[in-house]
């Protein structure tokens, strides 16, 4: 075995707490855009042009950039779990291959290996 020192319980706890935090954030952001229009109209008066533009911007960010970030987080959790499982099974080369594939998946969103 290499000099790696992995704690299965620590990895599991970290993966679970990361997933829990991500799900909470995802839930909080799910209504982003739609929920902002009326408060902006109420707070600024006006006819809703600015509120509509802000809503469209936030929905675009949520459905584009934030969705890709969410996919990256999900893929990272899956790749980390796969690499740790390979390591614990005694296959360091497979663990290293999983880590390499995780890096590729994070940068290209290609998760076909997983």
Would you kindly provide a written description of the structure presented here, covering whatever features stand out?
It contains 4 helices and no strands. It is an all-alpha fold and 114 residues long. 76% of the residues lie in helices and 0% in strands. It has a domain of 76 residues.
Our Rg estimate from Cα atoms comes to 20 Å
Which spans have pLDDT < 50 for at least 5 consecutive residues? none
The general outline is elongated
Main β-sheet: number of strands, strand sense, barrel status? none
List the helices and strands and how they pair.
Elements: H1 8-29, H2 37-44, H3 49-88, H4 92-108
Helix pairs in contact: 1-3, 2-3, 3-4
Characteristics of this structure?
114 residues, mainly alpha, 76% helix, elongated
In short:
7% of the residues are buried. This protein has 4 helices and no strands. The radius of gyration is 20 Å and the shape is elongated.
């Amino acid at each position: 075995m290499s000099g790696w020192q992995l704690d299965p319980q620590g990895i599991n706890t970290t993966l679970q707490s990361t997933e829990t935090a991500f799900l909470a954030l995802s839930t909080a952001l799910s209504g982003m855009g739609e929920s902002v229009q009326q408060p902006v109209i109420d707070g600024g008066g006006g006819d809703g042009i600015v509120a509509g533009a802000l809503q469209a911007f936030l929905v675009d960010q949520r459905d584009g950039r934030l969705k890709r970030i969410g996919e990256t987080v999900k893929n990272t959790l899956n790749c980390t779990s796969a690499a740790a499982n390979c390591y614990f099974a005694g296959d360091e080369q497979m663990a290293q291959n999983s880590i390499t594939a995780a890096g590729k998946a994070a940068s290209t969103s290609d998760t076909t290996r997983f």
